[in-house]
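Tokenised fold entry reproduced for everyone:
>
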Amino acid sequence: MGPLMFLRRNLTAFVLLPVLLFCSCARAGNEPVSPAGKGADFSLKALNGSEVRLSDKLGPGKKAVLVFFATWCPPCQREVPYVNDLNTRKGADIAVLGVNIQESPAKVSSFAESKKINYTVLLDADGEVANSYGVRSIPTIIALDGDMNILYEGHDIVDMEKKIKI
């Protein structure tokens, strides 16, 4: 089979594979998804080995921002400086939590070190937390108030700060 015949037979794969790869990590626009009620409480292991429960981070006047990400995702990598900045400016009033989805602790630790992440990074080893929040693309940003009401759900930390008072 010649190269031209091979290309014709596999054209669909050559076209669809890059599109699927791009879409799995692309921003779904900067428009937030309509907040959908209450967030789910969870407990995950942090990179430092401690167990972190979301509800322990919330309370009167204390909100949380969850940043669901993967180390291989370019838009996720580009969000890190903005999330670091949010944590630096508002970390006393907001629990900023990076939630890595299904990657090894060693890989996530190396990523966090290389990107100089200054916020708590949690390991969602089985993807259950991401699933419970309906995460379908990354990065996904979810802001919660002290009662776990979802204030924002979208894909851009800067957009979140423009759209809601956090």
